[in-house]
Design a protein that fits this description.
- By secondary structure, this protein is mostly helical.
- The chain has a domain of 64 residues.
- It is built from 6 helices and no strands.
Length: 107
């Protein structure tokens, strides 16, 4: 007997399970984190690079999306050290993206 309010986990087949579906979900999350500056950075990076990330890169990006906004912003600015579990090629790409001379953030 299931508990009231129980929602079973969806399988890959039920959620689409494709890399394309995952990329769309990650793009949506990247653009709507709730912290304006981080939304702009993650959203612009996702627009430019998400399609080219492999499964490992998608997993790294997803882990960064799960990190607290204030922490990620401090890491990107260099105000706090990047934890080893987030110090990866995707974070380096985000950092490089932030360091561009004339960024074209979407507002």
């Amino acid at each position: 007997m299931r508990a009231r309010g129980y929602i079973p986990a969806m399988t890959d087949g039920e959620t689409g399970g494709s890399s394309e579906t995952r990329r769309k979900r990650l793009l949506f999350r990247a653009q709507r984190r709730g912290f304006k500056e981080v939304d702009l950075i993650f959203g612009a990076y996702a627009d430019a690079h998400l399609a080219g990330l492999d499964e490992t890169g998608l997993t790294q990006f997803e882990a960064l999306l799960a990190a607290p906004d204030q922490d990620v912003y401090a890491w990107l600015r260099g105000a706090a050290p990047v934890p080893s579990d987030h110090d990866n090629p995707v974070f380096a790409g985000l950092q490089g993206f932030c360091g561009r001379r004339d960024p074209d953030w979407k507002t």
